[in-house]
Specification:
The protein is an alpha+beta fold. The chain is built from 8 helices and 20 strands. The protein has helices at residues 59-65, 86-91, 97-106, 129-139, 156-165, 240-254, 266-272, 344-348, and strands at residues 8-12, 21-26, 30-37, 40-45, 69-77, 79-80, 83-84, 110-119, 122-123, 147-149, 173-178, 188-194, 197-208, 215-223, 229-235, 293-294, 300-305, 308-309, 312-313, 318-322.
Length: 352
Amino acid sequence: MPPVSPMLAKLARELPAEGGMLYEPKWDGFRCIVFRDGDEVELGSRNERPLTRYFPELLDPLREQLPGRCVLDGEVVIATAGGLDFEALLQRIHPAASRINLLAQQTPASFVAFDILAEGDDDLRSRPQVERRRRLEAMLRAARPPLHLTPCTTDRALAAEWFDAFEGAGLDGVVAKPEQLPYREGERVMLKIKHERTADCVVGGFRWHKSGGVIGSLLLGLYDDAGTLHHVGVTASFPMAQRRSLVDTLAPYREQALENHPWRDWASAMAAAGGRMPGAQSRWNAGKDQSWEPVRPELVVEVRYDHLQGDRFRHGTTFVRFRDDRTPESCTYAQLDEAAPAELAQIFGTRG
């Protein structure tokens, strides 16, 4: 019975050695546990909150194609000709059912299954991963869109090909699972190998840490060809000692920061930029404090990132260092390396 806390993965720098491992593409969507009991279908999120109301177009196909009683683990994604569209998923987190239903027609979602927790009276969580995979393949042998079975292989060389070839489709990388691994809820026992690059960004502002008195995150900017500084994400990976030292580092740049700041009129700019300026409300937590403090855009930092979503870093970045040798004006989109789009049909058609 819901809720179930999904089994998680910890970051690894390279694919583990071949032998006793299953490799799968790492999907970039909403983690989702599907519970089906007769006509009842519930979609649970990674944080155990219900997703059912946000993806009504999935409910009938899941009733039609899944056994009468089962629990599956997978990812809700929205696939386009240019790859996975995470921004379209975010648009679904909306209070109005009419808006959700409209988006369900315009940008329908898919469910990609990669694990099975139960079938009928069988609780499969204690069974090894390789056995659960066989049960899942038998269940979804005839699956048709919008329900998909993720590709899986024991061939490390093929997994390495997936890591490169499918990046343009918006996949995060590759997940490696020990064949004998039981399903361990809420534990980081799988491995994820993700794409990673670095970029030099302008520091345009910061947010205070929730504990107060220290820096929580730095707001990052990049210049476009017209010389406009765009908010592209944040970096927040600091130990507490560095959070305290950043207060002194940023202090001189806070003086008269708003006088000529490119984000001074962020409220009006946010509307024009589709909510991409600092201060945009979080779709996940309406009560979250998104207020920010400006600094003069003169500091440059190097950060690590995995990939872009449109013109913005898809996930939070990792702070590497300050770059006193770089000028803010040199921090442009031109430095970013992003893979060309790939057709998702290539992924759905691949079998290990």
